[in-house]
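User: Need the bound-state model for iron/sulfur cluster:
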Amino acid sequence: MLDVETLAKKWENSDPFVILQNAANLGLNWTLAMSFSREDTVILHWLSQIWQPVDAFWLDTNLLFPETYAFQDKLRVQYPVNLRRIQPSFSLKEQAQHYGQELWKQDPHQCCHLRKVEPLFEALKGYGGWITGIRREQSPTRAHTPIIEWDNRHELYKLNPLARWSTEEVQNYAEENHVLVNPLHGKGYPSFGCYPCTRPVKPGESIRAGRWEGWDKFECGIHQ
Ligand code: SF4
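Assistant: Bound-state model below.
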C-alpha cells in the first residue's frame, strides 16, 4: 500500500504535470475520468505526453449536452486516447418504466445513482487508480480534496492533480497551449453535466451554481 498522506504532502506544491509523471512511475494502471470539462482535457493533454494511448472513460448518462457528444468525437481525433463509453444498466425508457418519467425532476439523487454512481463501479473495475479533474475551488464539498487519496468505496487510488489550481490557471494553461475546450464553457457553463440539471451561471455566481438548481444537491455522488 502507498502512504497516500505522505505522498499528498510531498506533491502538494508540485506542478500537476510532474504529479502525473510521478504517478505514472508508481506501477499502477491508471484511468482518467472524463466529463469533458476544461480540467479533464488539460489532464488528457498532459497524459498524452506521458503514455499512449491514454486510458480514459466517460459516463454516458444518455442525457449529456449535444455539444459534449460532439466534443468527445473531436478529442478522439486530437489525442491518442482509448475513451471507454460506460452506460447505465437502465436505458432511459427502462428507467422511466421502473422509477417514473423524468426521474431527475422527482428524485435527482436516485437518478444520479442509477446513471452515474453505479456505472462508475464498472468503469473502475480492474484499475489501480483513477485520475480526476476536480479542484478545491469548485465548491465547499471539494475544498479539502487531496492530491492523492485512497478511494475506499472503489478500493483504488484517486489522483486529483489539479486540486490546488484556480480557474484562471486552468483557463490560462488551456489557452496558451491550445488545448481543446468544450464549447459549453464559452456559453456560460463553467461546470456542466446532464442538460436537464444544468443551467448557465449568472455573473457573480459560483462555479457550480447552475447544477441541480432548487435541490439540496451539490454533487452527483461519484466524488463522495
Ligand atoms: S445530472 Fe440529472 S439527469 Fe444526469 S444523472 Fe444526475 S439527476 Fe439524472
